[in-house]
């Protein structure tokens, strides 16, 4: 019997209208456009300013486009998975809110908390429901409202992140789709990238708020090194175990945290830079949103049969690489 793969059959994305440029940030913290562009590759990021909107609302916008593009009725969606660390609430999960908001009345859903690896963890999880024949239509979103957990007085983090959402539809395919994935995790990396308070260890108190512990904390230099190694190692592993070389790969789609990280990974593995897709200049790091937003922005380049690597590294630590074959 032919193996059933989970294929991406459509991609969509959404970023809010409001833009925060490097020049805007120059007026907020001690930084400058030259430093930000040369150290990160970022020129601007989109910010969800409307206080009544949250991560699920960005997912809704992406999901609506996805449903229309793929000619899918919301009630035909079986399962929704949202990769995010900035869900609307600690509970309930964003995926269920999203399902209700788009009328996916037959779907159940859940969130995956894997920070910048949220999309790849989610797409691999979603693919298993398709490969086993359990479901036919799985929507996978990666979305974060990072502006809700950033300290805009901390120049080392606030310049890096933006808000955004992406969504893909997974459907069964007999030729192409998600071929293989290597996913990794190491909780000892927590100390270098986390949010100090708001969880069960340090619930919100007046002190945690006063001490600004509800924001992203990152030791950037350490994370940088682990990120380059983690993405490079897992790309190598997924290529080797599928008997592939760089020449067999048409596109590499890395998580967009820092252009220097992306190019270091490409150089370590000898990938020509024109195979490595980058849009960080426009959005900054949208955490779980980066990879689906790259898929959206570069969709026109992909040809049926193209072999694509998705790779990510993020808080947890979480990381990994996915090999897929494009099917349309
Ligand atoms: O997506 C989740 C995973 N996250 C990542 O992958 C992020 C990984 N890390 C990074 O991307 C980089 O480490 C950063 C962009 C966060 C920082 O770049 P860096 O080249 O590692 O800079 P650094 O932290 O070593 O700082 C170099 C200097 C410091 O000054 P001194 O100590 O050399 O005088 C910083 O204080 O740059 C200073 N600095 C800034 N200067 C102007 C830090 N942030 C800024 C800023 N503007 N915004």
Task: Summarize the structure in short.
This protein is of the alpha/beta class and 328 residues long. The chain has helices spanning 22-26, 33-40, 55-69, 94-102, 118-131, 155-158, 206-210, 220-241, 259-268, 280-283, 290-297; strands at 5-14, 19-21, 44-46, 79-83, 108-112, 138-145, 163-173, 177-185, 193-195, 216-218, 251-254, 307-314, 318-325.
Shape: globular
State which percent range the strand residues make up: 15-25%
List the total number of helices: 11
Order of helices and strands: EEHHEHEHEHEHEEEHEHEHHHEE
Share of helical residues: 25-40%
Spatial ordering of strands, largest sheet: 1-7-6-4-5
Broad structural category: alpha/beta
> Could you describe the largest sheet, including whether it forms a barrel?
5 strands, mixed
Distance between the termini: 23 Å
- Computed CA radius of gyration, to the nearest angstrom: 19 Å
Number of strands: 13
**Ions, cofactors, ligands: which are bound?**
oxa(dethia)-CoA
Topology (SSEs and partners):
Elements: E1 5-14, E2 19-21, H1 22-26, H2 33-40, E3 44-46, H3 55-69, E4 79-83, H4 94-102, E5 108-112, H5 118-131, E6 138-145, H6 155-158, E7 163-173, E8 177-185, E9 193-195, H7 206-210, E10 216-218, H8 220-241, E11 251-254, H9 259-268, H10 280-283, H11 290-297, E12 307-314, E13 318-325
Helix pairs in contact: 3-4, 8-9
Bound molecules: oxa(dethia)-CoA.
């Amino acid at each position: 019997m032919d193996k059933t793969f989970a294929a991406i059959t459509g991609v969509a994305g959404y970023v809010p209208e409001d833009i925060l440029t490097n020049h805007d940030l120059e007026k907020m913290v001690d930084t400058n456009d030259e430093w930000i562009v040369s150290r990160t590759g970022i020129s601007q990021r989109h910010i969800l300013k409307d206080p009544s909107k949250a991560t699920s609302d960005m997912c809704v916008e992406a999901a609506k486009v996805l449903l229309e593009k793929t000619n899918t009725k919301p009630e035909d969606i079986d399962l929704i998975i949202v990769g995010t660390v900035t869900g609307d609430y600690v509970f309930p999960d964003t995926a269920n809110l999203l399902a209700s908001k788009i009328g996916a009345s037959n779907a159940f859903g859940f969130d995956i908390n894997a920070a910048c690896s949220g999309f790849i963890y989610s797409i691999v999880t979603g693919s298993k429901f398709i490969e086993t024949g359990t479901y036919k239509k799985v929507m996978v979103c990666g979305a974060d409202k990072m502006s809700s957990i950033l300290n805009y007085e901390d120049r080392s983090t606030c310049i890096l992140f933006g808000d955004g959402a992406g969504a893909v539809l997974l459907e069964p395919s007999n030729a192409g789709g998600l071929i293989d994935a290597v996913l990794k995790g190491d909780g000892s990396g927590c100390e270098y990238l986390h949010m100090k308070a708001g969880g069960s260890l340090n619930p919100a108190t007046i002190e945690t708020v006063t001490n600004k512990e509800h924001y992203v904390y990152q030791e950037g230099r350490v994370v940088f090194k682990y990120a380059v190694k983690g993405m490079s190692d897992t790309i190598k592993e997924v290529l080797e175990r599928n008997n592939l070389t760089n020449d067999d790969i048409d596109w590499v789609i890395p998580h967009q945290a820092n252009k220097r990280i992306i190019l270091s990974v490409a150089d370590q593995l000898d990938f020509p830079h024109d195979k490595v897709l980058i849009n960080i200049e426009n959005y900054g790091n949208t955490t779980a949103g980066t990879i689906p937003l790259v898929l959206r922005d570069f969709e026109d380049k992909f040809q049926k049969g193209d072999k694509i690597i998705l790779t990510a590294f993020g808080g947890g630590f979480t990381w990994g690489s996915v090999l897929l074959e494009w099917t349309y």
